[in-house]
Amino acid sequence: MKKIAAVFASAGLLALAACGETPANETANASNEVVENVIENAVNASDNAMNAANAADNAAVNAANAI
Q: Least C-beta-crowded within 10 Å: which of 4, 18, 27, 59?
C-alpha cells in the first residue's frame, strides 16, 4: 500500500510542471484516490461474497427441488 502511495506521489510531483499545483495538493489527491480505490475494492469483495452466498443458496434449492 505504501508503495502505491509513493508511486502516486511521485507521479503527482512529476506532473507539477504540467498542471501547476503544489506538491502537497498533488500528494493529497493521489492519497485520496488510493483510499477511494481501497474502499471500492472492499465493497466489490463484499458484493462478490454475497453473490457467492446467493449462488450456494440457489444450488441448494435446485438440489432440493430435484429430489
A: 18
